[in-house]
């Protein structure tokens, strides 16, 4: 009975939440007339190589009026020299430098706040130094949604496809995270965003005192800000292929594990209603697999178990494959059964370990 309940809850979220993203129609880049000025903010600590590769792709965007604010956060490499060189070629580049202080240690939220204060414009667009926009229409596509009450636009940032199981797992986890926060926003329940590609108004930041309520948490400059400030009326999404911002994935399990532990730390500070909803959703998926394995060991009716599993897989395929095409990861469907199982058990271990992890830092 519990197995069937877990199945029904899990399928409910797929059909009545995630399917909203399946039917979502994005606006083509050529149909987007936007004119308001924009400040793009990038925080960088020892990111010389990434900035050299990715910053020109941001500075060369096809947009009428924008600046790029790079916060050089206590870098010990040659980031400063690189930014000086770029400043000579790009008049729309503004550099904010934070110097190391022996007694004052800070996280990314301090750097982001200084970048926002230095921004000249009301509309802010965020990304990271190790990311690059998929097209020169990135700014335009992300800004097209700012009309009326809209104050937050949630974008999407996939990871580059590479070989190996770890890469596939990272990309599936990124897909699941995106399909969840994007579809929940479409359903009027926005609860998080990803700082590699999101936009909001400067006035919203200062009106709600920035990161003051969660400044003690090292992570969460993106998802916690959205969790506390996004509403049904003030949040939109953007997933056009040209608006996506690509990132380099972790290449070792240790570095990926460290990244996920840091992200889990922010989730503990979500609104209680969001934490309960996400716990029920995630718990149903995990419980489905755990009970399926137990029932197989107990030699329950194999035909019934197989039928329920295949029905779930069919529903997932019908809903997720069109979404995967939109989110640039349709190749994952070929390995979906194995990846989905691995993802759920990885989530179990990650959740347990994060309960006891205390010290978390940005870099």
From TrEMBL:
Alphabetical UniProt keywords: Glycosyltransferase, Membrane, Transferase, Transmembrane, Transmembrane helix
Glycosyltransferase 2-like domain sequence ranges: 39-177
Annotated protein name in UniProt: Transmembrane glycosyltransferase
Residue stretches spanning the membrane: 276-298, 303-323, 335-356
Family: Belongs to the glycosyltransferase 2 family.
Pfam families in the record: Glycos_transf_2
InterPro entries tied to this protein: Glyco_trans_2-like, Nucleotide-diphossugar_trans
Example of a GO MF term: glycosyltransferase activity
């Amino acid at each position: 009975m519990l197995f069937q309940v877990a199945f029904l809850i899990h399928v409910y979220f797929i059909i009545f939440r995630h399917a909203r993203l399946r039917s979502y129609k994005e606006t083509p880049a050529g149909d987007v007339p936007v004119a308001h000025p924009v400040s793009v903010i990038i925080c960088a600590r020892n990111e010389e190589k990434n900035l050299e590769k990715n910053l020109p792709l941001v500075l060369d965007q096809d947009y009428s009026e924008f600046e790029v604010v790079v916060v050089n956060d206590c870098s010990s490499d040659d980031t400063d020299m690189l930014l000086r060189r770029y400043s000579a070629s790009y008049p729309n580049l503004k550099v904010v430098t934070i110097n190391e202080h022996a007694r004052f240690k800070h996280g990314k939220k301090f750097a982001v706040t200084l970048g926002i204060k230095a921004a000249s414009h009301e509309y802010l667009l965020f990304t990271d130094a190790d990311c690059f926009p998929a097209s020169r229409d990135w700014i335009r596509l992300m800004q097209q949604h700012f009309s009326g009450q809209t104050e937050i636009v949630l974008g999407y940032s996939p990871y580059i496809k590479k070989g190996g199981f770890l890469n596939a797992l990272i990309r599936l986890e990124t897909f699941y995270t995106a399909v969840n926060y994007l579809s929940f926003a479409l359903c009027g329940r926005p609860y998080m965003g990803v700082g590699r590609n999101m936009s909001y108004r400067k006035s919203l930041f200062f009106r709600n005192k920035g990161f003051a309520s969660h400044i003690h948490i090292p992570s969460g400059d993106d998802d916690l800000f959205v969790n506390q400030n996004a509403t049904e009326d003030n949040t939109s999404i953007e997933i056009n292929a040209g608006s996506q911002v690509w990132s380099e994935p972790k290449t070792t399990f240790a570095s990926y594990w460290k990244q996920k532990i840091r992200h889990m730390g922010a989730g503990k500070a979500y609104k209680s209603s969001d934490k309960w909803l996400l716990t029920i959703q995630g718990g149903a998926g995990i419980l489905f697999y755990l009970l399926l394995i137990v029932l197989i060991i107990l030699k329950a009716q194999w035909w019934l178990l197989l039928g329920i599993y295949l029905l779930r897989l069919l529903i997932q395929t019908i809903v997720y494959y069109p979404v995967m095409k939109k989110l640039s990861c349709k190749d994952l469907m070929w390995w979906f059964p194995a990846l989905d199982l691995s993802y759920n058990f990885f989530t179990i271990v990650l959740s347990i370990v994060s309960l006891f992890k205390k010290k978390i830092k940005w870099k």
